[in-house]
Amino acid sequence: MNSPTSTATMAPPAVHLIDVHKTYPGAEPVHAVRGVSLALPTGSFTAVMGPSGSGKSTLLSCAAGLDTPTSGRILVGDREIGSLSSDALTRFRREHVGFVFQSYNLIGHLTVIDNIRLPMVLARREPDPGWLAELVAAVGLTGLEDRRPGELSGGQAQRVAIARALLPRPTVVLADEPTGALDSRTGTQVLEVLRETARRLGQTVVVVTHDPRVAAAADRVLFLADGRLVDQLDQPTVEQITARMIALGR
Ligand SMILES: Nc1ncnc2c1ncn2[C@@H]1O[C@H](COP(=O)(O)OP(=O)(O)OP(=O)(O)O)[C@@H](O)[C@H]1O
Predict the structure, then answer these.
(1) Ligand 1 binding site (Cβ under 6 Å of any ligand atom)
(2) Which stretches make up the ABC transporter domain (predicted)?
């Protein structure tokens, strides 16, 4: 799974997974991820699809350093995240990994602009005001900077989460069902914002999704089944993706 996409042929990988396994212990251990290796080229936009329970969220959490694999290696940029202490990993994540959740995860009492600034404030870094304003404009939030999350639509809230993830110019942005809570039209618009902003910045993005229209925006779609990478499509159409998902039993 190491062959790079046509859009980033010469770039080194932004994220490199080598034989990653994740087993949840218990009376009946769950082998959620079973030996996944992949290299995501810098600047690439990758979708991860697969039936419910196939390990997509687990894989993304491991790649983000939010969860620890049972075995295998994960490199973000040139840093092997398994070698970092818990504190160092937290700091590393703030600077190098942007995460967008389905549920937005915004802080209710902070304004839009303070939510966007939060990871950098926590990392004791001062965002460049010009870059912050450009990003707010790029995701279509100009004029809404002083609102609280409770005063936003779902689509606007997810744009805040996207701007927050992009602000530190992380090595990779990982998004788990980012449009899952939005109606189809709003979801398409929000995804377009993420795709276009990321493309302009050369930002590496990985999106977990059930929606073939969302996945069709990607350079490459990876298909997981039962914890294994079983297929991939480059520059896919909605129809090709739908056919693969049906073949996998969704
Ligand atoms: N914390 C956990 N403890 C035990 N088992 C877990 C845990 N998290 C996930 N699993 C199991 O691991 C497997 C993979 O789950 P995961 O959430 O990664 O799948 P998914 O492909 O993202 O599913 P969905 O599309 O339904 O969100 C499932 O069998 C799930 O029940």
Answers:
(1) 24, 30, 32, 50, 52-58
(2) 15-249
Is 5 a member of any domain?
no
CA–centroid distance, residue 126 to ligand 1 (Å): 37
Left (φ > 0), alpha (ψ -120 to 50) or beta: where does 19 sit? left
Q: Which domain holds residue 122?
A: 42-65+83-247
Judge whether 135 and 116 are in contact, CB under 8 Å: yes
**pTM of this structure:** 0.90
Percent over 90 (pLDDT), the chain: 72
What's the DSSP call for residue 82? G
Residue 220 lies in a domain: yes
Return the ligand 1 atom nearest residue 227 CA. 14
Of 48-52, 100-104, 182-186, highest mean pLDDT:
48-52
pLDDT band at 189 (very low <50, low <70, confident <90, very high): confident
Instruction: Measure the CA angle with vertex 64, ends 63 and 66; round to 5°.
Output: 110
Rounded CA gap, 86 and 207, in Å?
25
Instruction: Provide CB contacts within 8 A for 218, sequence distance 6+.
Output: 45, 46, 47, 207, 236
- At position 98, the amino acid (one-letter code) is G
3-class SS string, 157-168: HHHHHHHHHHCC
Asked whether residue 108 is assigned to any structural domain, the reply reads yes
Helices 184-201 and 154-166 cross at an angle (nearest 10°) of: 20
Evaluate if residue 183 carries a pLDDT over 90.
Answer: no
Give ipTM to 2 decimals: 0.98
20 in any annotated domain: no
pLDDT interval class at 10 (50, 70, 90): low
Domain count, the chain: 1
